Every structure is written in C-alpha cells, then in structure tokens.
Amino acid sequence: MKDKIEQILNEVKAFKADSKEALEQFRIQYLSKKGTITELFTEFKQVAPEMRKEMGMKLNELKNTIQDIIDEQQKNFETKSEGKTDLDLSLPVDAMNGSRHPLSIVRNEINDIFKRLGFVVAEGPEVEDDFHVFSALNFPPDHPARDMQDTFFVTKSPDVVLRTHTSSVQVRVMEQGKLPIRIIAPGRVFRNEAISARAHCIFHQIEGLYIDKNVSFADLKQTLYHFVQEYFGEGTKVRFRPSYFPFTETSAEMDISCNICGGEGCNICKHTGWVEILGCGICDPNILKACNIDPEEYTGFAFGMGIERIAMLKYQINDLRMFFENDLRFLKQFENA
Ligand code: DAH
Predict the structure, then answer these.
(1) E strands within the chain?
(2) What is the distance between the alpha carbons of residues 246 and 57, in angstroms, rounded to a whole number?
(3) 210 in ligand 1 pocket by Cβ < 6 Å?
(4) Residue to mutate (ligand 1; options 170, 303, 309; most atoms within 8 A of CB)
(5) Which is it for strands 248-257 and 274-283: parallel, antiparallel or unpaired?
(6) Which residue of 86, 130, 136, 144 pairs with 171 in a disulfide if CB–CB is 3.0 to 4.6 A?
(7) Torsion region of 55: left, alpha or beta (phi above 0 gives left; psi -120 to 50 gives alpha)
(8) For residue range 10-33, what is the model confidence (pLDDT) as tens digits?
C-alpha cells in the first residue's frame, strides 16, 4: 500500500490541468465518493495494526496534497474565466506606472548627500516614550513642548507620545553605546497643530548627529555648508543665528540665501533675502551624560530640518497641504524629478 500511495503522489504532483473541465475530472478521479482516495481508505481497513499510524499519515498527506493541487490550479481558471479583462496579467510590465512622492525624492537626495560624507541612516519608533522624546534631550518637566497642546499623547502615565521630532532617534542611537556616531534619521513626526498652508499635524524631518573626539562648531558649519552647496547649488550663502534648543549648547538656526530670488528679496523670503532651513548646535553635555557618554572625552553636533520645508523651497510650493492630498495633478509633476 505504501508503494501505491507513493506512486499516486508522484502521478498527482505531475498533473497540470489544461482546462477547468480537466481539473474537475481530476477531482472526481481522486476525491469523489468513488474516487481513488475513498478506495484507499477502504483498503486501509486491512492494514496491520503496527503499520496503521504510518499509513494513515501517508494517506492523509496524499489527500491534502491533492486538495492543494486543485486549489492552486483552480486560480488559473478563475482569473481567465471570471476576470473582466482579456489582458494577460502574467506578462511582465514594460515600465512602472507612477512615481515617487516629492517628499521621498527630497528625503533620498538629502540622505545621499550625507551618506557621501559617511553618515548612515538610523531609524526609531514613531510611538515613543517621554524619555526619548523629551527627558533625555534635556527638556525641563514644564517645557511647553510637553504640553497636550503640542504633543499627541497615546497614554499618560506612563507617558507614551507620538514623537514630536526625530531628535528622539539621537537618544536611541546614543544608547546603543557604539562610538563614534555619524547618523541621519529621516522620519515622520506629529504635532498637535491646526492644519494650514504652513503647518500640519503630520510632517517629516531629518535629524543629524555626529559624535566623536574633538568635534567642534567648525565641523558643524562646514558639514552644513557642504550640504547647502550640494543641494541648493554652488554659491548659496549660509548664515547662523544664535538660538535655543534644550539639547544643544551652543544652539543656532541656519538660513540660506533665498534660492528663489538669489537674495534680492521676494515673497518667499519675505523680502529679507534669507530663508531659515534648520536648527542645529553642539550637543549639550547633559544629553551625552544621559546616554552614558563621557562629555570630557566626546563632543558632538546635531541638526534637524523639516523635509516639507526643504521641498517647498526647492520646488517653490507654497502650500504644505499639497504634500498630503495626493492629488495626481500635483504628484504627476514629479514624475521625472
Ligand atoms: N528637534 C528640533 C525641532 O523639531 C530641530 C532640531 C534643532 C534638531 C536643533 C537638532 C538640533 O538636532 O540640534 O524643532
């Protein structure tokens, strides 16, 4: 009986139905009431008790295999007979329809520039705890960013939030304890903002972090200067204005000469000739300490920019909501970007 089962197994495995009728015939031959499997089960009653277990398993396996073959091949005929098209859907496509979203294009371009400088891409969760978004980054307990007005809370106590910035990934990477660090962290962030042409409750940022021995503000300036020349073109000017972030000391905001009017003054730069593109600074020793890095030995710089903001400047888009509406008339303009 064992040989018989093996032989039938080989037979059915080689079976390929060329029509729905042939497949039905196959089913009747093996699985119907008078079919082969029923016959085998009748024979099975004669099998010696010590062989029963093995034979029973083999028989069931055969039955299941046949059913699988039928189910699998059935699909071929369903598509052809019930589909509403004569197209051969199994043919390979010549060209992909569609294109990348402008935010993905910009993110990839920015990533590539920093990757060429030796930065690697790091990721962290969008749903984060208070420690990674705020505490480890030196936000005091009463900092306004921790307020419900600005932050989406998932649960309160323990504080679980939707991350309000990708700076949380800095903490995730520092915690791993591998030095030096040279990462960029692109990702989605969330803030409880009213949606308008200039603000959205969901947007994207790219965070950068460089920690090593002897990293200085000069390194930060040169790195960002290089990025700006690559992205906005040779000759784009940069300027740094003193600012404040809890996790950097010294902190700055960086402006570039308006890429629309070349610094002459226009609507986009509000006739100042400059547009702000990012925040940056030297990592505060406290945040290194919070992640067990010795600030006497290591220093670092960090920066963070909004991808929407960069994309709006690059493509002269004046309404942020466009990125989220997925209007094909908008998206199609980036097909060849
Ligand atoms: N996390 C800041 C924000 O969301 C941006 C930022 C500023 C990131 C300065 C940095 C930095 O790493 O050094 O507004």
Answers:
(1) 120-121, 127-129, 153-155, 160-162, 181-190, 202-212, 238-242, 248-257, 274-283, 299-306
(2) 67
(3) no
(4) 303
(5) antiparallel
(6) 136
(7) alpha
(8) 999 999 988 888 999 999 999 998
Band of pLDDT at residue 286, cut at 50, 70 and 90? very high
55-71 pLDDT, tens digit per residue, is: 889 989 999 999 999 99
Taking the C-alpha atoms of residue 274 and residue 253, their distance in angstroms, rounded to an integer, is 12
Phi, psi angle pair for 117, to nearest 5°: -90, 5
When mean pLDDT is compared across 65-74, 90-99, 129-138, 294-303, the lowest value belongs to 90-99
Q: How far is CA 72 from the centre of its chain?
A: 33
- Sign of the CA dihedral running 304, 299, 115, 187: negative
Ligand 1 atom 12: the closest Cα is on which residue?
303
Structure tokens at 142: 């009463």
- The number of beta carbons lying within 10 Å of the beta carbon of residue 2 is 11
| Residue to probe by mutation, ligand 1, list 219, 247, 249, 309, most atoms within 8 Å of CB | 247
- Mean of pLDDT over the chain: 92
Predicted TM-score (pTM) of the model is 0.73
From the alpha carbon of 283, which atom of ligand 1 is closest? 13
Query: 205 CA to middle of ligand 1, Å?
Result: 9
Tell me the chain's radius of gyration from C-alpha atoms. Answer: 31
62 C-beta neighbours (distance < 10 Å), count = 20
